[in-house]
Amino acid sequence: MKRAAWLALMAFVLLEVPYAPAAESTLGVWPVDPHEKVFRDAVPGEVGKGLSLRAARNEFEPAQLAVRSTTALRGLRLEVSPLRHADGRATLGPDHVRWSFVGYIPLAKNTRRSEAVRVRAAPCEIPDPLLEARTMDLAANTTQPVWLTVFVPKDAPPGVYRGEVTAAAGTLKATLPVELSVDPFVLPDARHVLVTNWFNLNNLAKAHQVEMWSEPFWTVLERYARNMAAHRQNVVLVPWSLIAVTRQADGKLALDYRRFDRFVELFARCGVADRIEIG
Length: 279
Description:
Elements: H1 2-16, E1 27-32, E2 51-57, E3 59-69, E4 73-80, E5 83-85, E6 91-92, E7 97-107, E8 124-130, E9 136-138, E10 143-152, E11 159-169, E12 172-186, H2 201-208, H3 215-230, E13 235-238, E14 244-247, E15 253-256, H4 258-270, E16 275-278
Parallel strand pairs: 2-12, 13-16
Antiparallel strand pairs: 1-3, 3-10, 4-9, 4-11, 5-6, 5-11, 7-8, 7-10, 11-12, 14-15
Protein backbone atom coordinates (compact mmCIF):
# COMPACT_ATOMS: atom_id res chain seq x y z
CA MET A 1 0.00 0.00 0.00
CA LYS A 2 2.80 2.39 0.88
CA ARG A 3 4.46 1.82 -2.51
CA ALA A 4 1.20 2.44 -4.37
CA ALA A 5 0.59 5.65 -2.41
CA TRP A 6 4.11 6.91 -3.17
CA LEU A 7 3.69 6.23 -6.90
CA ALA A 8 0.34 8.02 -6.89
CA LEU A 9 1.88 11.03 -5.16
CA MET A 10 4.74 11.18 -7.67
CA ALA A 11 2.26 10.99 -10.56
CA PHE A 12 0.30 13.90 -9.01
CA VAL A 13 3.47 15.98 -8.62
CA LEU A 14 4.58 15.34 -12.17
CA LEU A 15 1.16 16.28 -13.50
CA GLU A 16 1.03 19.48 -11.46
CA VAL A 17 4.48 20.78 -12.58
CA PRO A 18 4.04 22.75 -15.83
CA TYR A 19 6.19 21.66 -18.78
CA ALA A 20 8.85 24.23 -19.73
CA PRO A 21 10.37 23.61 -23.17
CA ALA A 22 14.04 24.46 -23.63
CA ALA A 23 14.61 28.00 -24.86
CA GLU A 24 15.28 28.21 -28.56
CA SER A 25 18.84 29.20 -29.39
CA THR A 26 19.18 32.53 -31.15
CA LEU A 27 22.41 33.35 -32.97
CA GLY A 28 22.88 36.93 -34.08
CA VAL A 29 25.56 38.59 -36.18
CA TRP A 30 25.79 42.29 -37.01
CA PRO A 31 28.28 44.80 -38.50
CA VAL A 32 30.33 47.11 -36.27
CA ASP A 33 32.44 50.12 -37.23
CA PRO A 34 36.08 48.89 -37.26
CA HIS A 35 37.08 51.91 -35.14
CA GLU A 36 34.85 50.67 -32.30
CA LYS A 37 36.03 48.45 -29.44
CA VAL A 38 33.56 45.58 -28.99
CA PHE A 39 33.27 44.36 -25.41
CA ARG A 40 31.79 41.07 -24.27
CA ASP A 41 28.63 42.77 -22.99
CA ALA A 42 27.94 44.62 -26.25
CA VAL A 43 24.33 44.22 -27.36
CA PRO A 44 23.32 43.52 -30.94
CA GLY A 45 23.18 46.44 -33.32
CA GLU A 46 21.48 46.22 -36.68
CA VAL A 47 21.24 42.44 -36.93
CA GLY A 48 20.97 41.34 -40.55
CA LYS A 49 22.42 44.53 -42.01
CA GLY A 50 25.30 43.77 -44.33
CA LEU A 51 28.97 44.71 -44.26
CA SER A 52 29.84 47.52 -46.66
CA LEU A 53 33.45 48.24 -47.67
CA ARG A 54 35.17 50.56 -50.12
CA ALA A 55 38.78 50.33 -51.26
CA ALA A 56 41.21 51.30 -53.97
CA ARG A 57 43.20 48.67 -55.82
CA ASN A 58 46.43 47.73 -53.99
CA GLU A 59 44.82 48.58 -50.65
CA PHE A 60 43.90 46.72 -47.45
CA GLU A 61 40.44 47.49 -46.10
CA PRO A 62 39.12 46.30 -42.70
CA ALA A 63 35.65 45.47 -41.47
CA GLN A 64 34.31 44.21 -38.17
CA LEU A 65 31.33 42.14 -37.14
CA ALA A 66 30.07 40.81 -33.84
CA VAL A 67 28.48 37.48 -32.88
CA ARG A 68 26.21 36.78 -29.91
CA SER A 69 24.01 33.84 -28.93
CA THR A 70 21.36 33.32 -26.25
CA THR A 71 22.87 29.88 -25.56
CA ALA A 72 26.44 28.68 -25.21
CA LEU A 73 28.20 27.82 -28.45
CA ARG A 74 30.78 25.09 -29.04
CA GLY A 75 33.15 25.41 -31.96
CA LEU A 76 32.02 28.78 -33.26
CA ARG A 77 33.59 29.38 -36.68
CA LEU A 78 33.37 31.82 -39.57
CA GLU A 79 32.73 30.88 -43.18
CA VAL A 80 33.64 33.60 -45.68
CA SER A 81 32.64 33.17 -49.29
CA PRO A 82 34.68 34.58 -52.19
CA LEU A 83 33.73 38.11 -53.22
CA ARG A 84 32.53 38.02 -56.82
CA HIS A 85 32.42 40.96 -59.22
CA ALA A 86 28.89 41.98 -60.21
CA ASP A 87 29.49 41.01 -63.84
CA GLY A 88 31.25 37.76 -62.91
CA ARG A 89 34.62 38.66 -64.44
CA ALA A 90 36.67 38.58 -61.24
CA THR A 91 36.74 36.97 -57.81
CA LEU A 92 38.56 37.80 -54.57
CA GLY A 93 39.17 34.49 -52.80
CA PRO A 94 40.74 33.28 -49.54
CA ASP A 95 44.12 34.84 -50.36
CA HIS A 96 42.47 38.26 -50.39
CA VAL A 97 39.68 37.90 -47.81
CA ARG A 98 40.76 36.87 -44.31
CA TRP A 99 39.16 36.85 -40.88
CA SER A 100 40.30 36.58 -37.26
CA PHE A 101 38.62 36.36 -33.88
CA VAL A 102 39.48 39.37 -31.73
CA GLY A 103 41.13 38.51 -28.41
CA TYR A 104 41.09 40.40 -25.11
CA ILE A 105 43.83 41.81 -22.89
CA PRO A 106 43.17 42.10 -19.14
CA LEU A 107 43.62 45.67 -17.89
CA ALA A 108 44.21 45.97 -14.13
CA LYS A 109 44.22 49.78 -13.98
CA ASN A 110 43.86 52.78 -16.23
CA THR A 111 46.62 55.22 -17.05
CA ARG A 112 46.59 58.20 -14.70
CA ARG A 113 44.65 61.25 -15.90
CA SER A 114 43.33 59.33 -18.91
CA GLU A 115 39.64 59.95 -18.21
CA ALA A 116 39.11 61.88 -21.45
CA VAL A 117 40.33 59.02 -23.66
CA ARG A 118 39.30 55.90 -21.73
CA VAL A 119 37.13 53.41 -23.57
CA ARG A 120 36.30 51.59 -20.32
CA ALA A 121 37.21 51.89 -16.65
CA ALA A 122 39.53 49.21 -15.27
CA PRO A 123 39.55 46.48 -14.19
CA CYS A 124 38.30 45.18 -17.50
CA GLU A 125 39.29 43.27 -20.61
CA ILE A 126 40.18 45.29 -23.71
CA PRO A 127 39.63 43.81 -27.20
CA ASP A 128 42.81 44.13 -29.24
CA PRO A 129 44.84 41.17 -30.65
CA LEU A 130 43.80 39.19 -33.71
CA LEU A 131 43.89 35.49 -32.87
CA GLU A 132 44.99 32.56 -35.03
CA ALA A 133 42.30 30.21 -33.66
CA ARG A 134 39.84 29.02 -36.29
CA THR A 135 37.15 27.93 -33.79
CA MET A 136 36.08 29.23 -30.41
CA ASP A 137 33.67 28.29 -27.62
CA LEU A 138 31.40 31.15 -26.59
CA ALA A 139 29.38 31.48 -23.39
CA ALA A 140 25.69 32.37 -23.58
CA ASN A 141 24.85 36.07 -23.92
CA THR A 142 28.47 36.92 -24.64
CA THR A 143 29.55 38.99 -27.63
CA GLN A 144 32.55 37.99 -29.75
CA PRO A 145 34.00 40.45 -32.30
CA VAL A 146 35.49 39.21 -35.56
CA TRP A 147 37.91 41.19 -37.75
CA LEU A 148 37.74 40.93 -41.54
CA THR A 149 40.59 42.10 -43.78
CA VAL A 150 40.21 42.45 -47.54
CA PHE A 151 43.14 43.12 -49.87
CA VAL A 152 42.34 44.33 -53.37
CA PRO A 153 45.10 43.43 -55.87
CA LYS A 154 46.37 45.95 -58.42
CA ASP A 155 44.77 44.15 -61.36
CA ALA A 156 41.30 43.74 -59.82
CA PRO A 157 38.61 45.22 -62.08
CA PRO A 158 36.86 48.17 -60.43
CA GLY A 159 33.21 47.85 -59.51
CA VAL A 160 31.05 46.11 -56.93
CA TYR A 161 31.93 42.71 -55.44
CA ARG A 162 29.48 40.70 -53.35
CA GLY A 163 29.69 37.72 -51.03
CA GLU A 164 28.70 36.71 -47.54
CA VAL A 165 30.12 35.84 -44.15
CA THR A 166 28.47 33.21 -41.96
CA ALA A 167 28.86 32.60 -38.23
CA ALA A 168 28.23 28.92 -37.52
CA ALA A 169 28.23 26.57 -34.54
CA GLY A 170 26.73 23.12 -34.85
CA THR A 171 23.37 23.50 -36.62
CA LEU A 172 23.13 27.22 -35.86
CA LYS A 173 24.02 29.69 -38.60
CA ALA A 174 23.68 33.42 -39.14
CA THR A 175 24.76 35.15 -42.34
CA LEU A 176 25.65 38.70 -43.33
CA PRO A 177 25.90 39.91 -46.92
CA VAL A 178 29.20 41.61 -47.83
CA GLU A 179 29.53 44.30 -50.48
CA LEU A 180 32.88 45.75 -51.57
CA SER A 181 33.14 48.77 -53.87
CA VAL A 182 36.50 48.93 -55.66
CA ASP A 183 37.52 52.35 -56.96
CA PRO A 184 38.99 52.72 -60.48
CA PHE A 185 42.50 53.70 -59.44
CA VAL A 186 45.56 51.93 -58.03
CA LEU A 187 47.13 52.99 -54.75
CA PRO A 188 50.85 53.47 -55.56
CA ASP A 189 53.51 51.39 -53.83
CA ALA A 190 55.43 54.57 -53.00
CA ARG A 191 54.47 56.04 -49.63
CA HIS A 192 54.68 59.77 -49.10
CA VAL A 193 53.14 60.17 -45.64
CA LEU A 194 55.51 59.17 -42.82
CA VAL A 195 53.65 57.01 -40.32
CA THR A 196 55.20 55.87 -37.05
CA ASN A 197 53.87 53.02 -34.94
CA TRP A 198 55.36 52.65 -31.47
CA PHE A 199 55.68 49.14 -30.09
CA ASN A 200 57.31 47.42 -27.13
CA LEU A 201 59.96 44.82 -27.94
CA ASN A 202 59.73 43.15 -24.52
CA ASN A 203 56.00 42.66 -25.00
CA LEU A 204 56.60 41.04 -28.40
CA ALA A 205 59.04 38.57 -26.84
CA LYS A 206 56.66 37.85 -23.97
CA ALA A 207 53.64 37.35 -26.23
CA HIS A 208 55.49 34.87 -28.45
CA GLN A 209 57.40 33.24 -25.59
CA VAL A 210 60.83 33.81 -27.07
CA GLU A 211 63.97 35.08 -25.38
CA MET A 212 64.90 38.67 -26.15
CA TRP A 213 67.53 38.92 -28.91
CA SER A 214 67.59 35.16 -29.49
CA GLU A 215 67.38 33.92 -33.08
CA PRO A 216 63.69 33.00 -32.61
CA PHE A 217 63.10 36.59 -31.46
CA TRP A 218 64.68 37.97 -34.64
CA THR A 219 62.45 35.64 -36.68
CA VAL A 220 59.32 36.94 -34.93
CA LEU A 221 60.50 40.53 -35.34
CA GLU A 222 60.93 40.08 -39.09
CA ARG A 223 57.36 38.82 -39.39
CA TYR A 224 56.16 41.98 -37.69
CA ALA A 225 58.31 44.11 -39.98
CA ARG A 226 56.91 42.48 -43.11
CA ASN A 227 53.36 42.93 -41.83
CA MET A 228 54.06 46.60 -41.11
CA ALA A 229 55.42 47.10 -44.62
CA ALA A 230 52.40 45.40 -46.20
CA HIS A 231 50.16 47.87 -44.36
CA ARG A 232 52.17 50.92 -45.49
CA GLN A 233 54.13 51.52 -42.29
CA ASN A 234 57.36 53.31 -43.19
CA VAL A 235 58.93 54.60 -39.95
CA VAL A 236 60.59 52.30 -37.43
CA LEU A 237 61.12 53.19 -33.78
CA VAL A 238 64.68 52.18 -32.86
CA PRO A 239 65.57 52.16 -29.14
CA TRP A 240 68.83 54.01 -28.52
CA SER A 241 69.59 51.32 -25.90
CA LEU A 242 70.41 48.91 -28.74
CA ILE A 243 73.82 50.58 -28.78
CA ALA A 244 75.83 48.84 -26.05
CA VAL A 245 78.13 51.25 -24.19
CA THR A 246 81.08 50.10 -22.06
CA ARG A 247 83.92 51.96 -20.39
CA GLN A 248 87.33 50.57 -21.13
CA ALA A 249 90.36 50.36 -18.84
CA ASP A 250 91.72 53.67 -20.11
CA GLY A 251 88.45 55.40 -19.25
CA LYS A 252 87.26 55.81 -22.82
CA LEU A 253 83.79 54.71 -23.92
CA ALA A 254 83.36 51.89 -26.45
CA LEU A 255 80.17 51.76 -28.54
CA ASP A 256 78.90 48.45 -29.95
CA TYR A 257 76.46 49.01 -32.82
CA ARG A 258 75.99 45.38 -33.87
CA ARG A 259 72.45 44.93 -32.43
CA PHE A 260 71.46 48.43 -33.55
CA ASP A 261 72.69 47.77 -37.08
CA ARG A 262 70.95 44.40 -37.34
CA PHE A 263 67.69 45.94 -36.14
CA VAL A 264 67.76 48.78 -38.67
CA GLU A 265 68.92 46.52 -41.51
CA LEU A 266 66.07 44.08 -40.81
CA PHE A 267 63.39 46.76 -41.09
CA ALA A 268 65.08 48.34 -44.11
CA ARG A 269 65.20 44.94 -45.84
CA CYS A 270 61.48 44.47 -45.17
CA GLY A 271 60.68 47.89 -46.60
CA VAL A 272 59.73 49.75 -43.44
CA ALA A 273 62.65 52.08 -42.71
CA ASP A 274 61.99 55.08 -44.95
CA ARG A 275 62.94 56.88 -41.77
CA ILE A 276 64.24 55.64 -38.43
CA GLU A 277 62.98 57.24 -35.23
CA ILE A 278 65.16 57.18 -32.12
CA GLY A 279 63.58 57.97 -28.77
